Every structure is written in C-alpha cells, then in structure tokens.
Amino acid sequence: MERVQKVISNLGYASRREAEKLILDGKVLINNQKANLGDKVKPSDIIKINGIVLDKTKSNDKVYYLLNKPRGVVSTTSDELGRKTVVSLIETDKRIYPVGRLDYDTTGAILLTNDGDLTNLLIHPSREVEKVYLAKIKGIITGSDIFKLKNGVVVDNKKTSKARVKLKSYDKKNNTSLVELVIHEGRNHQVKKMFEAIGYDVIKLTRIRFAFLDVKTLKSGEYRMLTPKEVKKLYNLGSN
Ligand code: URA
C-alpha cells in the first residue's frame, strides 16, 4: 500500500506537490471515489486523474525538472562545504543531478534529471544546445567590444565560438551595462571569462533560457516537471 500522491509522482505524472494539488482540487479518483490526501492505494486500485486512468504499467522512472536556480546554491549533487545544492531544492526520491552547471552566484534555468542518455546528448560538445544569458557588467560596453564577443575571445587559451550578443541597456549613472549573450558552448565560467577577456567584470549573471526552456513562469527557487512533449523535443535537439 502506498500513498496516492506518491504513486502519481513515482509514475512521473506530476511532482509530489503537483500531485497533492490535483488531489486537493478533486481531480483524482480512486476506484471512482474522490481521493483524499494520504489515501493509500494497492496495485489493483484504479486511479483516475482528470478522468483518465493512470497507466501503472507505464512506470517511467525517468524524471525531468526545470528549476529557476536562486543565488547561493551549488549545481552539484553534494557539496564538501555543506552549501545548499540544486538537488536539495527538488522534492523527489529519484537520484537526480543537474545537466551542466551554473555558478554559485548565477541564477536561472537549469535542468535536473536522472536520464543519463539525455544529459549526454545535451552536453556533448558537438551538439551543445543554445543557452541565453543576461549579464550585468561593470562599465559601459563599447560597440567594438560587443563585436569581439560575437566573433570569439580567447578563454583558457582557446577562442570561444561565435555568439549572438546584444546590448540590452546601459546605466550611465551606475556605470553598468546589461548584455544578452547566446552561446552554445558550456565551458567553466564561460560568460564571466568572456567578459574578463575584454576587461569587464560581471556583477550579476542569469541564464534566461536553456534550449527552448525559459523560467519566466517560475519564481526564484521554483521548479516544474517537463512535459513528455518537451522531453521529446530535447531528445530531438540533442540528436541533430
Ligand atoms: N558562465 C559563467 O560564467 N557562469 C555560469 O554560471 C554560466 C555560464
């Protein structure tokens, strides 16, 4: 016997919290009776969500989360300094890990999964997916420096690939600029090092999009599960 919200989330239908909400909203039936939070079910019980029978044979042990990473969290599964990890922000009993990294002080879109095949597809250097960053930098960036970023700058003895770079705004009073960068590579501290290479310090960095996934609907620290359609789309991107 297992709690109904656990059965729903283990099948990858929704996160535990989303499953609880579905139950509270009266969208879940057990043997055609409205389910209550904490109801226990046995394998022969029929669970319906929004009128559709949950197929328990299609147990999907793969899970995919999109997190809006807050500042002050490491993108690893554990941290030797005991700092908070992105994994600890997600309520799951699966052994998930982040796809790639964001720095401790970088915010924004990060995927977490236990699907190693998809991870390898997405972070393979020959097929790195598009990532969009918004960087607040110290100084007013010049047109020629934007041109340099677009064409590639030398980072760790190797030139970066071509990038799309746009000056979004600048603030003369505070002497800062907001620059959007679209890159495909995922080298360590890449964006900060690209700016460093041309003499600017990054004050704030946010990844506003990973592939086609943005975090506009997620507050800092919030996450959601990907839909099966989104997972399929990611697989297709990776295999191009
Ligand atoms: N580039 C960086 O410098 N830091 C990040 O977190 C991501 C990209």
Shape: elongated
Share of residues in helices: 10-25%
CATH homologous superfamily of the largest domain, by name?
Pseudouridine synthase I, catalytic domain, N-terminal subdomain
Q: Regarding quaternary structure, how should these chains be classified? A: single chain
Unreliable runs: none
The ordered H/E elements are EHHEEEEEEEEHEHEEEEHEEEH
Give the C-alpha Rg.
Answer: 21 Å
CATH architecture of the largest domain, please? 2-Layer Sandwich
Largest sheet: 9 strands, mixed
Distance between the termini: 44 Å
Strand content: 25-35%
Describe, in plain words, how this protein is organized in 3D.
- The chain is of the alpha+beta class.
- It has 3 domains: 2-53, Structural Genomics Hypothetical 15.5 Kd Protein In mrcA-pckA Intergenic Region, Chain A, CATH 3.10.290.10; 64-126 and 215-235, Pseudouridine synthase I, catalytic domain, N-terminal subdomain (Alpha-Beta Plaits, 2-Layer Sandwich), CATH 3.30.70; 130-210, Alpha-L RNA-binding motif (Alpha-Beta Plaits).
- The chain is built from 6 helices and 17 strands.
- The model has no long low-confidence stretch (mean pLDDT 92).
- Bound molecules: uracil.
